[in-house]
Amino acid sequence: MSSVAQKKGFGATLWDWLTTVDHKKIGILYFLGGGFFFVLGGIEAMLIRWQLHKPNNDFVSAGLFNDLITMHGTTMIFLAAMPLLFGFMNAIMPLQIGARDVAFPFVNSLGFWMFFFGGLFLNISWFFGQVPDAGWTSYASLSIASEGHGIDFYAIGLQIAGGGTLMAGINFLVTIINMRAPGMTYMRMPLFTWTTFVASAMILFAFPPLTIGLFFLTFDRMFGGNFFDHTMGGNTIIWEHIFWIFGHPEVYILILPAFGIFSEIFSTFSRKRLFGYPSMVFATVLIGFLGFMVWAHHMFTVGLGPTANAIFAVATMAIAVPTGVKIFNWLLTMWGGSIKITTPMLYALGFIPSFVMGGVTGVMQGAAPLDYQLHDSYFIVAHFHYVIVGGVVLAILAATHYWWPKMFGTMLNETLGKITFVFFFIGFHLTFLIQHWLGFWGMPRRVWTFMDGQGWNLANFISTIGAFMMAIGVIVLVYNIIVTSIKNVKVANDPWGDGRTLEWAIESPPVYYNFHATPLVRGLDTVWIEKMEGNESGLTPAEPIKDIHMPNGSFIPFLMTLGLFIAGFGAMFRTEESWGLPVLIFGLLWTFVAMAARSLKDDTGYYIKKDEILRDMKRKGGQN
Question: Fewest C-beta in 10 Å: which of 245, 394, 467, 532?
């Protein structure tokens, strides 16, 4: 294996990344893939805001505007926010629990390629000129009536990507349950690991309804299934229930890992143990539980009746309580701490007021009578972005700066990082704060343009200025990443100096087998405990150094997903083009042959010999 790792040629490097099952490399692949789609979704957002910067604008057509808002929402939720969080979960969580890798490395690779090919499938719709246009929620009446193959790209692309997400969730669950180092009890796990655990459990229950809904939608459009066509005995509203039974837990699937990221950052840069750790864990689990009980607050205007509305209104307000517990615990973590203002800490400090504002407007909408007035106005757009951007995106940017040295072995420039924060944070509030008032003033969302003289002109112009400030912040971040990568100045194990969890006790970036010897965990914030007792390495081994078993890389996950990608095109064009049905059959056969190859191949992995581990330790100066 070490000889493979030493190859320097482009072809060998490309092959290594295409076949890798190393959780750290797959984390970087998720990071790169999610980053690409984040930029793509951001460009779509810029086009939307430019169209709305003045009244009666004709920068894009009404049809293209519908394409843009659909693809912006779908890309940012499914192809940017989740994969970027998965990148950090993959790269960091196994290190935090003292594991060699995730439980199922092959499935981990398959999950990434399914996300990536699903995202490509969705975005190739632009080249066909048939783009999803029914909104990111793809409500059934609109999606069934939509002409062309835009919605088919949506349904098939998300089924492929969603399968990968489900695999990742199962993998993380099994990893955390089975692969914790000796002494790593559940109540000693770092908060980021806890939030990964609960979010993964939510994925397990939330994604099957989405998958079923997408199958129904595909059958309605391709085979006349009539699940959602009320004229044929179907029910349009059922799509909303199916989608939001997935969609609201999805918000918490995104926000819980963000909470975990900020918990790590507050503790590290306050140089204090996280205040109220048990209550934070309990609040995380409670949010995961209650997240499945609030979906119909998206449907107060559907006509479910006062009883159903009241039940979901109460549940919506109840879920604010464990979130509030977390806010106070973060504030009390900082209280009396020795606070160090770094770029990640700036994002954490900015997150609290931003997310609280999003939470407060969420509770407001939990009151059904008020929701009747605000529904489908720009107030909803403002609320949603305060939660997702003010929570999730700030966490992703914070984690990028916080864990970059651990993932890549170099430190992002702090000055440029703070410039990114200033532009992005001010731009974010400039963009979305004013949209609350636009909602109060009656501007409906999803409108292509607006007439002059309604009092919306200045607010929309300010909102657009803010959006371009956010774009400048992201451009500075990309420049920061490029410059840092070119300079390639290596950093120590714990470049922040105050790391508390296991990932900060090993090399930056870690060796491919993570730990020279399985660590012994002696308490919460185990590395901090070791440091305080004079053990500068931060690790106490739980066993002597010995041979380590590792999995082999595999090209089969790539091939399996490529078959599904090909079959998707065949399914869409099977009745219109002579090549459609053969391509569908070929793609499915390709996938099944790859699956059979995996089943028949007896891959037992390989061993890293003790001598090689000792040589690595000697080269690193005895660290870890």
Answer: 532
